[in-house]
Amino acid sequence: MPGDDGYFDERVAARYDESSADMFDPAVVDPVLDFLVELAGDGRALELGIGTGRIALPLARRGVPVHGIELSKAMASKLRAKPGGEDIGVTIGDFATTTVNGTFSLAYLVFNTILNLTTQAAQVACFRNVAAHLEPGGCFVIEVGIPELQRLPPGETFRVFHASVSRWGIDEYDVANQGLISHHFEIVDGRLERNSVPFRYTWPSELDLMAQLAGMSLRERWSGWKREPFTSDSRNHVSVWEKLRD
Ligand SMILES: C[S@@+](CC[C@H](N)C(=O)[O-])C[C@H]1O[C@@H](n2cnc3c(N)ncnc32)[C@H](O)[C@@H]1O
Question: Is residue 143 in contact with ligand 1, taking CB distance under 6 Å?
């Protein structure tokens, strides 16, 4: 069972940047920044699950004031230890319910992190929490994968999503409950380490309904940060909901 830091404890935080190195590549990060800078305008941004600052730090360097909510003290301390990290406020808590001072023109939740909330009630609460922090007309951005059920043969519950010399990933589906456990196996210093993280997968339409419940409506949906069209073949979506004006 996870401790207070959730699934991103000291051990995971110590290796997070290295094990997600491809996600720190400027070719991946820069389009995210371009997208978010434009939406933030002159306002402040709130990152849910800010982690070690992969997006928040370069976004702040682009002139957007960023505040984060983060469950894991271990991840937040990695952020603080980086250049510029001390200047970014982080509130420790669950982003479904934790409140922070002030309002924001932009809130964002990237890298599939909405799925870390493992019940529908928690995901709905997250949308409501975001709406309470947004200015009217403010935007909420989510980047998340489309559930890969079309790749799951009938009757099967396991799907390999990564296999290399020293790292393997297997998703275990619980279709009746929209549940998914991602099992990660990695050889570290000659030993096999396992990390199994539960998720609740969601469909774009379900997220739209959560937004509607929270007083927001869909403004844009793309399959990537460069505003690639969203189609039946898309494996990810970047969606933007706008808080309705009274
Ligand atoms: C996949 S990492 C993404 C970190 C960062 N946003 C990035 O793009 O690199 C997910 C982060 O969300 C945090 N997290 C997961 N569930 C959370 C929750 N319910 N409340 C607050 N933070 C949470 C984790 O501790 C972790 O730092």
Answer: no
Compute φ and ψ for 2, nearest 5 degrees: -70, 155
Of 84-88, 187-191, 200-204, 226-230, the range with the lowest mean pLDDT is 187-191
Measured over all CA atoms, what is the biggest interatomic distance in the chain, rounded to whole angstroms? 59
Residue nearest to atom 20 of ligand 1 (CA): 94
**What is the tens place of the pLDDT at every residue in 175-224?**
999 999 999 999 989 999 999 999 999 999 999 999 999 999 999 999 99
CA-derived radius of gyration, the chain: 18
How many other CB atoms are there within 10 angstroms of residue 40's CB atom? 24
Q: pTM for this one? A: 0.96
Q: What three-state secondary structure class fits 116?
A: helix
**Separate counts of helices (H) and strands (E) for the chain:** 6, 11
Whole-angstrom distance, CA of residue 233 vs CA of residue 230: 8
Q: Is the CB of 72 under 6 A from ligand 1?
A: yes
Nearest C-alpha neighbor of 13 from the set 49, 46, 45: 49
Q: Dump pLDDT digits (tens) for 51-63.
A: 999 999 999 999 9
Mean pLDDT for the stretch of residues 16-43: 97
State the sign of the Cα–Cα–Cα–Cα dihedral 52, 202, 119, 122: positive
3-state secondary structure of 138: strand
According to DSSP H, which parts of the chain are helical? 10-19, 26-40, 56-61, 73-80, 120-133, 204-213
Distance from the CA of 153 to the center of ligand 1, in angstroms? 30
Residue where the block lists tokens 């019940």: 119
